[in-house]
Amino acid sequence: MEPLSWTGSLSVLNPIYLALWAAFGIAVIAQIVLSFVSPSAEMQGSALAAKKTPGEMAGTASRYLFLGIIALTLIYLIGGILIPGIENKGIVGAISARFLPVWIALVVTFALSITFKRKLGLYGKLFDSFVGMIGFAIVMFWVFTGVFSAMDLIVTHDPLSQVSGMKNKSPGEPLAGAEAGEYAFYLLGGDNLARDVFSRMVSGSWVVIQIAPLATLFAFMVGITLGLPAAYYGGKLDTFLSFLANLILAFPVILLFYLLVTPEIVATGLPSYMASVLFLFPIIFLVVLFNSRFYTQPSKQKVYVGGILIVGLLLYFSLISQDRTPLNFWPDALDLFDIPGGVLVVFVSVVFVNSPTVFRIVRGIALDIKTRDYVAAGQTRGEGPWYIMLWEILPNARGPLIVDFCLRIGYTTILLGTLGFFGLGLPPESPDWGSTINDGRRLLSIYPHPALAPAIALMSLVLGLNLLADGLREESLKD
C-alpha cells in the first residue's frame, strides 16, 4: 500500500492554492508599505481624491485573495468528505472526513445561534462581530473535537497503543500489518514510541477542554466571592484580602506552578488540603447567590439553597476524597467519580494561581460600580449587601469579566502546555499537547511532525480564545 499524498485527487488545485497564498502575501506587504505613503495635498483637493489610493487597492486585493484562499480550503475539506476512497481523499481529505461530526455540530450551532441571536443577549451580539465569529468557530471546533474524541468518533487509533514498525513514520504512512476493520493509515505519522500523532492530538484536546474552562470557572467563583465584599465593605477586610492576593501574585506564575506540582510538594498532601478549601467557594457562591435572591420568598429559598447544599456537598466530598491522598475518607458507595491524582493537582494549581488575579479585577470593577446611583437606590430600598453585590454590581460587571474569562482560559491552556512540556502534573503517557510537544522536540530537526501537530493545535485554540475575547469586548462596549 502506497503512502497517502497530502491532497489526493485534488492535487491539481495545489498550484492555484500556492499562487493565491503568494499573491496574498505580496498584497499584504504592499498594503503595509503603501499605508505609510499619504496622498499629496493637491491630490486630496482634486477629483482624484474620490478614487481609491494604491494602499486601499492593495487592501481590497488582499481581502479578495483571502476569500479565495478560504474558498479553496473549503473545497479541499468538502472534497475530502465527498470523494470516495481514502487514497483519493489524501491526508487533508481523510482528516476532514474524520472531523465530520465536528463540522455538523459547528453548522448546527452557528445556524441556531444566528437565527435566534437577538434573543441571546451578549452571546447573540457576538455574531455581529466577524472577528468574534472566527474566534468562536475555532474555540468550538476544539470543544466539539474534545467531546467527540471522548466518544471515539474521531480518533483512528488508541492514542496510547504502539504499532511495531511505525516509529517516527511520516504523515500518511500505511499501517504495518493492518487487520480487517482497523484504520489503515497514520494520518499525521507516528511518534518516537510508534503512537498515532493524529489520535494523540485529537485526544489531547479533551484533556484541555476538561481542565482549562472548569478550572478557570472555579477561579472566577473564588475571585468573585472574595472580591465583591472586599470592594463593597472596604476597610480592614479589603486590606487583608488584598494583601493575601498580592502575596500570591508576588511569585512568578510559572515558578509557582512548578512548585505546586513537583512530586515532593504533592507527597506532603498540600494539593489535597488546598482543594478542600478552594472547592468550597463554588458552593458558598451559589448558596449566597440564591439565598440573597429569594430572601423574601422563604419557600423557594429553602428549595434552592437546600438543593445546592445537598448536590454541592456530595460533589465536594467526591472531589476532595481521593485514593492515595490524606483526605481519603468518603465511602465508595457515595463517591461519584475518581479524578486521577495528576489532574487534581493541576486543577487545584490553576485555580490557586488564577484566583488572586480575578480577585483584583473584580475588586477594581466593583469599586467603580458601587458609586453608581442604582446601587445607592438599592441601599435606599433596604436591599441587603449581598443582594446588591450579586444582583446589582455583578451583572453590570459581566462584560469585562466575560472577556477576561475567555483570555484566562487561553492563559490556562498555555500553562497546561508548559507543565506538560516539563513533564509535571499529568501522567507521562498523557496525550495532552504539552507532553506530546515535549516528546517530539527531542527529534525535532529530523522528524518535526510529532511536535508540530499539537503545537499548531495549541496555538490555534489560544488564538481562537483571544479572537473570541476581542469580539466580546467589542460588543460589550456597545451596551
UniProtKB/TrEMBL annotation:
Record-linked InterPro entries: BP-dependent_transpt_permease, MetI-like, MetI-like_sf
PANTHER family: OLIGOPEPTIDE TRANSPORT SYSTEM PERMEASE PROTEIN APPC, PEPTIDE ABC TRANSPORTER PERMEASE PROTEIN
Native organism: Boseongicola aestuarii
Domain ABC transmembrane type-1: 205-469
Protein name, per record: Glutathione transport system permease protein GsiD
Domain of life of the organism encoding this protein: Bacteria
The keyword Transmembrane helix belongs to this UniProt entry's keyword annotation: yes
Annotated GO CC locations: plasma membrane
The entry's keywords: Cell membrane, Membrane, Transmembrane, Transmembrane helix, Transport
Family recorded in the similarity comment: Belongs to the binding-protein-dependent transport system permease family.
Localization of this protein: Cell membrane
Gene Ontology process terms (BP): transmembrane transport
